[in-house]
Amino acid sequence: MDEQIMRGRVYGADHDDPDPGPQPGRTYTELVGGPLDGLLLVVTGWTPGELRDGAALPTEIGRHGPGGRSLYGPRPTDDQRWDWQGDTP
């Protein structure tokens, strides 16, 4: 994984966490666009099907506010980056 990605904040890390970045031994994908832009998502242990399907990630800062989810899916040309596909309630 390149150095720029390794400096990112991990999705779901507590804002008060003194080390919110990537941890050794885990696999990450970078979220691109939308409300979670620039965060890293831990995908360690995900099956090939789960990685292909992407994820609906809970977020309070998306279009639908608290309780909403932001949809991210793999970029066809770069499996280390997932693009924002919209928000859902």
Describe the structure using short key phrases.
89 residues; mainly beta; five-stranded mixed sheet; 2 helices; globular; disordered N terminus
Structure write-up:
By secondary structure, the protein is mainly β. 11% of the residues lie in helices and 36% in strands. The chain has helices spanning 3-6, 48-53; strands spanning 28-32, 40-42, 55-59, 68-75, 78-88. The protein has a 5-stranded mixed sheet. The radius of gyration is 13 Å and the shape is globular.
SSE blueprint:
Blueprint: H1 3-6, E1 28-32, E2 40-42, H2 48-53, E3 55-59, E4 68-75, E5 78-88
Parallel strand pairs: 1-5
Antiparallel strand pairs: 1-2, 3-4, 4-5
Summarize the main sheet: 5 strands, mixed
Overall, the morphology is globular
Give the fraction of residues assigned to helices.
10-25%
Q: Look at the structure and give the mean pLDDT.
A: 87
Distance between the termini: 33 Å
Number of DSSP strands? 5
Briefly, what is this?
With 89 residues, this protein is mostly beta strands.
